[in-house]
Amino acid sequence: MGRYVLKRIGYMFATLYVVITLTFLSMKLLPGTPFKNANRLSPVQLNQLKHFYGLDQPIPVQYVKYMWNFIHGDMGGSFQFGMQPVSQLLMAKFPVSLDLGFEAIIVGTLLGILLGIVAGLHRGKALDWGTMAVSIFGISIPSFIFAGILQYLFGVQVRWFPVAGWSGFASHVLPVISLAVYVLALVARFMRSEMVEVMSQDYIVTAEAKGLSTSAVVFKHAVRNALIPVITILGPLTAMIITGSLVVEEIFGIPGIGAQFVDSVVTNDYPMIMGTTELYAALFIITMLIVDILYGIIDPRIRLSEGGQS
Amino acid sequence: MAMSNEELTKELFTPADISHAASEKLSSEVVSAWKDAFRRLFRNKGAMISLVILIIIIGMSIIGPMTSKYSADDQSLIRSNLPPKVTALSWLPFLNGKENGVDMYQERGVKQDFWFGTDTLGRDQWTRTWDGTRISLLIALIAALADMFIGVVYGGISGYFGGAIDNVMQRIVEIISGIPYLVWVILLILILQPGLLTITIAILATNWIAMSRIVRGEMLKFKNQEFVLASRTLGAGNGRIIFRHLIPNSLGMIIVNTMFSVPNAIFFEAFLSFIGLGIRDPQASLGSLLSSAYTVLQLHPYQTLYPGLVISLLLICFNILGDGLRDAFDPKLRR
């Protein structure tokens, strides 16, 4: 197990290194300058600015410098916020996004597991059909449409919740729901098919045959085993939450990284874009690592059958 | 009671006539795997309804923009922000052209109807919505082609040849897929300018990964089976074995996966256009229509309605059809 984890961590750093290098290179290929009024500046002024920000040096030199600073926790200064350190800006906004993402994942996963169990136990009945219909809708309809519908119905029409903002419980409700719907749908779907699969296994028949009550069979034997594979969708879910948070933060005016990122792209704020991209990549890669390790711990067969290979 | 009185004698029985031809006859017609799959698909009500809705949407995206005399970027502030109106159906509250009880068409002196209303610049939402649908469908087609060509060929070669080739090709895939899709697409879009071409390249560059993995798995499953050995004994080359034997055998999986990657691609285009990284004005895309409609959501909610409805229907129908195809091609998975 130790070797396996070490190897995975090694892979993680390699991928991160590739991401950082790729982001750096693509930033260098970008058209346009990061300076707001570039066309009103004289060439001399432009050169001075470029010199000030170190953009006039050869690209390999810039690269080595960037990597060196990166290792020391310095991701450069944001062009649009008067050279405030990117790492500082990200750290200030990241907790908000993390908050939103976690709340959505927790709400969505819990409800999804519950719905999945109910649907799986009532296979082919009305409850099952209803859950699957909800799940198809949840998976299909984009989060920005849900966000819009919720905002209009509950924010504009009935005024139960604030239209935008991020302060206090009431303002969390709508954004969290609009993100959680997808999580709920995906988890419910997955959980249902796992439940159906598990319920037809021999050990469930054995458990029933030895006279256990239905609730004991379902909760002690079926649900526990059905939950294991659900961990694997945590990876894609994280990616989806990141994507979703970009639009949901924008729609509800939440001061998180997602909305910030969209602004950075529009203003050519290179260091900020690089920082956010790297943060997203790291988040995704670390989640994948955790999922793999968790899976190895919970189900030792995975580790053994793979023989340490990825 | 009655039975016990009567003896069962041998004379009561006559031997059935033995006809070899009859015993060889199949009670039902012979059905190939393909026919069977399509029969199952056609019996799936949800999938069939989705198919019909999709065909209607595709048809509308072709003829829709032609039925309006306004093109997607004909602007006029005289007719800005008009609610939808269909004179023949004006008894319906949402098609009477009234906003807050005032007939906006009378007030502005606009004679003709706008079935989906107009946007803040007075552009016909009907034309723009179907124009945007065209883009979504085009993206769907591109995604499907990327899957079919790049994904299948890459996975096929990697799985079939194995060894060092497979190793190198899989490491490349690992690096590509280790980085979130979103990051790839955004980096690509930053280097090139936002637009249809960029989205196309982004989809071509990243969409085939899942497919290549599935095809590789199928190749590994099939390549050591007897029919491949037989074909090789008869002198078939690698290309013939891959394209004539192995890929047709995994075609079911390929079709099903293509159907699932299509809604993802449609969503991604709409998403990118929504955050301003995709199709930009004056070109219309369902995503960009929605994003500009959201700015006036509180005042003119109908502008959000139709683009939102069309994209939701597209995605729901593709997903249900995908589910139906999966059940049809692989009944083992149906639970």
From TrEMBL, chain A:
InterPro entries: BPD_transp_1_N (IPR045621), MetI-like (IPR000515), MetI-like_sf (IPR035906). It is found in: Cell membrane. The chain crosses the membrane at residues 9-27, 100-121, 133-154, 166-187, 226-248, 279-298. It is a multi-pass membrane protein. Pfam families: BPD_transp_1, BPD_transp_1_N. Residues 94-295 form the ABC transmembrane type-1 domain. SUPFAM superfamilies: MetI-like (SSF161098). Keywords: Cell membrane, Membrane, Transmembrane, Transmembrane helix, Transport. GO terms for cellular component: plasma membrane. PROSITE patterns: ABC_TM1. GO terms for biological process: transmembrane transport. Belongs to the binding-protein-dependent transport system permease family. This is Peptide ABC transporter permease. It comes from Sporolactobacillus putidus. The gene is oppB.
Automatic annotation (TrEMBL), chain B:
The keyword Membrane applies. It is a multi-pass membrane protein. It is found in: Cell membrane. Residues 133-322 form the ABC transmembrane type-1 domain. The keyword Cytoplasm does not apply. Keywords: Cell membrane, Membrane, Peptide transport, Protein transport, Transmembrane, Transmembrane helix, Transport. One of its GO terms (cellular component) is plasma membrane. InterPro entries: BP-dependent_transpt_permease, MetI-like, MetI-like_sf, OppC_N. The chain crosses the membrane at residues 47-67, 135-160, 172-191, 197-215, 254-279, 305-325. PROSITE patterns: ABC_TM1. SUPFAM superfamilies: MetI-like (SSF161098). One of its GO terms (biological process) is protein transport. Belongs to the binding-protein-dependent transport system permease family. OppBC subfamily. This is Peptide ABC transporter permease. It comes from Sporolactobacillus putidus.
